[in-house]
Every structure is written in C-alpha cells, then in structure tokens.
Design brief:
541 residues; Peptidase_C1A_papain-like; alpha+beta; 23 strands; globular; 3 domains; signal; Cathepsin B, Chain A; eight-stranded mixed beta sheet; outer membrane lipoprotein receptor (LolB), chain A; Helix Hairpins
C-alpha cells in the first residue's frame, strides 16, 4: 500500500512538473495589437488579417494612416499601399519597396512567431494575465538576440511577444521590440479587410518612395532556426536570416558577394584602423544594391544652387578651443530614434531648432519631428514625409507654415500623417535660415557662434555598422550626400592632434555608434560633412 501511495506521489510530481504544450496557431487569423519600440518612444496600434491559405493579408496601422493590402492570387496579384500624401489619402499599386530585397517582395508578413525550436521557461504575469512563456536565444557572428513569447495559461491566447537584438532596418544597432496582443481570433479573418478600397481603384502613378518603410517586416523580428549541419559560413548566414534563392546560379552569386564582404570586414578588423565592423543580414548584397535599397536619394552638393544663397559670414573670427561640445552647455536633446521612417532630415532640422531655442531662451525645449514630416506638403519646396527631404527646404517650409509645435503637443509616430499643426500651440517661429560655406574654419566658427548645425553626409557600408572609435573612410563622397544628422562639436580623438573629428548626433538610437554619436574625421571634408551645412534663426517671441 505504501508503495502504491509513493508511486502515485511520484507520478503526480512528474505530471505537475511537465512542461505545458507549446501553443500552435493556424496560418489564418485576425489580431489587434500594440507594437512598441521603447527606445523610439513609439506605441503603434495594428489590426492585421493574415490568411496564408489564400496568399492575402491586410495590415492597418494608426486606424488607417497607413495600410498595406496584399492580394497574391490569380485574380488580383498585387500589393496596395495606402498612405497620407499631401494631406490626403493616396494608394499605390505594387509600390517600390527599397527596404525589401526583390526576391522577398511578394512574401506575406506573419505577426505570430513559430515556436518549434523554443524552450519553455516558466510562468509570469503580463498585463495582469497569468502566462506561460517560451524563450529563444540566437548567437551568430558574436551577436546575440533574445526572444520571449507569452500565452495565457488556460487558453494559450497570445498575450505578448518580446525581442531584443539587432534592429530590423539597418542591422546596425541593438533595439527592443514588443507586441502586446489584445485581440486574437484563430482560423478566422475579416473578409471585408480584403476588399480593394475605392481609393485604390485608380491608384497613383507617381511613386514617391525612395526610402523608408511604414510597415515593419515582423518576420525579421522572429528568430530563424539555425541549421546545425550547415558546413559553411554562408549556409549559417542563410539559416540565421531566413535567406532563400530561386536558383543555383543566384545562390552561387550571393555566396560570392557574401564571401567578398566577409573578407573585407575581416581585413578591416585585422588592421586596427580605429573602429570595428560586423557582418549582418545585408551581407549577401553588393553596396550598389544596398545603396539603391536603403539610402536616401543623393544630393549633389557641388551643383546645389541653394547652397550659394543666404550664406553666413562671421562678423568676428573668434579664437577657437581645441575641443568644443554643445552637449556640455545643455543645447542638445537626448538621442532619438527615427525608427522605420526615412525622416533623418526632420531630426537634423529639429536638433538645430532646439539648439537655437536654447541659445535664445536659456532652456532646452524638444520640438516635433512629426510636425515636420506631416506638414511640408504645401511648402514652397515639397517634402515627402517618411520618404525624405532636405533641411533648407524644411526651414523654408516652416517659415511659411507659421511655426513649429513641441514634441509634447505633437508626438512622434514614425509614419506620415495628416498635418495637425495648431498655430495656437506653436512653440517657436522661424525668422530665417543660413547656409554655411564648406570651409572647415568657417563651419567651426558657425558651430561655435551660432549653435548646433544641420548637416548631411555620404553613408557608405562601413558607416552603417559603426560602433565607436575614430571613423574615417576614403571611399565616401564629399558631394554625393544621402543622410542628415546634427553637428554638435569638434575635437581631437583621445587628444591625438592627428585625429581631428566632428562630433555628430545621429537618429538611430543610443544603440548605434558611441551612444548614438559618431566621431568622424574632419580631414579634407571627409564624407562631405561640410558640403551642406545649414542652421535656422528663430523669432524672439
């Protein structure tokens, strides 16, 4: 009898200690969730109907500000993108997506991970709900990403997905992503979501996209099962990043590009040039492909007529210190993250405006990048929201708009929206703006006398993966510029006069570069940092 009782207790113990079964979900579902990027301060509401059985999907963000409708079937093989342009809803059929390689362009975007290789980790409370959760960890090329998925204990309803790892846009810095699921209906979809809306019956013919993607490819947030039997670095790379190629010829071509990129990075890191580089998901692309897919259209500063107008001339030439940094005086706001919107120009502009407000009023006020993104459609020189612009155009546009609102009153969304500028809530107005000649000493005088400067430069492959140190690369251009940032200081790196630098504030979060900053060589206008320099003047009201 005692033996039977003991056996029963042991059996009960084993049952109680057994891991719960992994949740499994169909390839057809309706879900509503909040997608959060904590480092960017974004909380984006999504409604998704996913139906892989019929190759269709509808992704709706911010209650219709952005919508992607995928209908890859025999009757309507197309993707529609509905966005706000010029303060109206516009539809583009099969728009150019420069952040998706051509071979992946027609794939759907699941928003629930496959838990096949995940490990049960325990129970936790999420949003007041008792959950079981599973975790996954993946380390490739000295980079580790972490994943957790939470499901309600009794129903296995999805509650939360969490990931921290290399960001899904540039692959250049660590980031954090959270999906909080509030509605999940498995094996069902909203059929009305797949009806082509009226605005798409006559889609726009002009496609403005040159950068930026309003819809995150959530599959890039999910881990890829690693092929343990892979016998080459390229096979492991393919497994890690879910790469697939249509033919043996393409496989061999991509493998050759990968090996060449790997060789260049290993050679660079072995030479101790002062900064390091790492492989990432773009390793099977040539840089020409990367440039066409991921960067803003280049500006030829050499031929830019605007740069010869409104030129700033210093009335007095000050004796300049060896090192200068506007951060020490309180003129620079914290590092921000543009997320998946091609809005670097807006962050550059806003940084310069914030510096001017500090100099005029003695306190730092954060202005609204979203105000810039949404409201430059009617400016004299039209901008394209999340698809880029130039800083001088924005200063000109804000003068005509009548001011700029604060970040608090007009928070960042990371997508293009309707213009919500309210003159009664304007935080500042712009009187004028000036361009600065590309003479290094004049730029230093302007930075010292007038405050942080809006600048542009040429991003090359080594810069995308910069993670600190003294950056110089003689392959970047002095005149073909494709990214906008804020110049906040100068100095000699680690006191070495042979390593003079500009101190640059970027908008790729604190996980890129040196806590969001870059020390770029200022020898001979490296990468064009003095080719297009601009700053605004605020009205003193």
């Amino acid at each position: 009898m005692k033996q039977l009782i003991l056996f029963a207790l042991v059996f009960a113990s084993l049952v109680l200690s057994a891991d719960p079964p992994k949740p499994t979900y169909s390839n057809k579902y309706h879900t509503e969730f909040i997608f959060s990027l904590p480092y960017a301060g974004l909380n984006e509401p999504y409604v998704v109907d996913f139906d892989e059985t019929k190759s269709r999907e509808n992704i709706n963000i911010y209650n219709g500000l952005v919508r992607n409708l995928y209908l890859y079937d025999a009757t309507n093989d197309a993707r529609y993108e509905i966005i706000i342009t010029q303060d109206k809803q516009s539809c583009f059929k099969n728009p150019v997506d420069h952040l998706t390689p051509p071979k992946e362009a027609k794939s759907l975007t699941p928003v629930i991970p496959d838990l096949t290789d995940w490990t049960y980790t325990g129970a936790k409370v999420r949003r007041g709900i008792q959950c079981n959760y599973w975790s996954y960890q993946d380390t490739q090329y000295n980079t580790t990403s972490y994943y957790e998925f939470y499901a309600e204990v009794n129903s296995n309803q999805p509650v939360q997905y969490w990931m921290t790892g290399v960001d899904v846009v540039f692959g250049s810095h660590y980031d954090e992503y959270i999906l909080d699921y509030y509605v999940f209906q498995d094996k069902t979809v909203d059929e009305s979501a797949f009806v082509v809306p009226d605005v798409c019956k006559k889609p726009e013919t002009e496609i403005p996209h040159v950068f930026g993607r309003n819809v995150v490819q959530f599959k890039n947030l999910f881990p890829k099962s690693i092929n343990k039997k892979a016998n080459s670095r390229f096979d492991r790379f393919m497994s890690q990043f879910g790469k697939k190629y249509d033919s043996r010829e393409e496989y061999l071509s991509r493998k050759n590009i990968f090996e060449n990129n790997m060789k260049k990075i290993e050679e660079h890191n072995s030479q101790n040039k002062g900064y390091s580089m790492k492989m990432n998901k773009y390793a099977d692309l040539s840089f020409d492909e990367f440039r066409s897919l991921y960067l803003l259209p280049t500006i030829d500063a050499e031929k830019h007529e605007q740069l010869s107008q409104n030129l700033w001339e210093p009335e007095t030439l000050y004796s300049l210190p060896e090192t200068f940094d506007w951060r020490k005086y309180g003129a620079v706001s914290p590092i921000k993250d543009q997320a998946t919107c091609g809005s670097c120009y807006a962050f550059s502009v806003i940084g310069a405006l914030e510096g001017q407000h500090f100099l005029s009023h003695g306190k730092l006020l954060e202005f609204s990048e979203q105000n810039v993104i949404d409201c430059m459609w009617n400016a004299p020189h039209k901008s394209w929201g999340c698809d880029g612009s130039e800083q001088w155009k924005v200063f000109d546009g804000l003068m005509n708009l009548g001011g700029i609102m604060s970040e608090e009153d007009y928070p960042y969304l990371g997508v293009t929206g309707y213009c919500g500028f309210d003159k009664t809530k304007k935080a500042a107005t712009i009187h004028s703006y000036y361009n600065v000649s590309n003479d290094e000493q004049i730029v230093m005088q302007a930075l010292y006398q007038m405050g942080p400067l809006a600048v542009s430069y040429d991003v090359v492959s080594s810069n995308v993966y910069y993670s600190g140190g003294y950056y110089e690369d003689d392959t970047c251009s002095k005149t073909s510029l494709n990214h906008a940032v804020l110049m906040v200081g100068w100095g000699n790196y680690q006191g070495d006069p042979t390593k003079p630098y500009w101190l640059i504030k970027n908008s790729w979060s604190t996980h890129w570069g040196d806590e969001g900053y870059m020390y770029i060589s200022r020898k001979n206008n490296d990468c064009g940092f003095t080719s297009q320099v601009t700053y605004p003047i605020l009205n003193r009201d």
